[in-house]
Amino acid sequence: MTATRYLTLSRYNAWANRRIYRAAAQLSPLQFREDRGTFFRSVHGTLNHLLVTDRIWMKRFTGMGEIAAHLDAILFEDLDALERARLDEDARIITFATALDEPALAADIRYANSSGASFTQPLDTALDHFFNHQTHHRGQTHALLSHFLGNVGAPSLDLVAFQRESGLATPL
To answer: How far apart are CA 65 and CA 55, in angstroms?
Structure first.
């Protein structure tokens, strides 16, 4: 049952990211890069950060992939290129989650953080962080989009909306 939850979260993650990118495409180039005082400054910076950190965690989980040197690295200047990379990464995450089973989730992973400190933790708890981190920064991006586009232009990212669209929750 737990492995199924992570597959659902990986699919939700991709669904929510598609919605965020669709809304971000409505911004002017100035709005996309405007420093609004968030941790990664702008929609551009925050979306790049999410891709950077997903790649870091996926390398920790799988041992494969390239990672950036800094959490605030700008991997792509262009929204279209960033979105293509995001779609590829989301597909990679779904493929990874599809293969998970209970023994894999209970197994420890070992990794070094961006400061070089070493850690060991069960994969399932690292995945909890992984998906929560996405939600956290997508929420920041959503707030920025709401500022520029208004509440009507900022998409619903509620997990229950995904569950209803995907048939995991059905009306009586």
So the answer is: 7
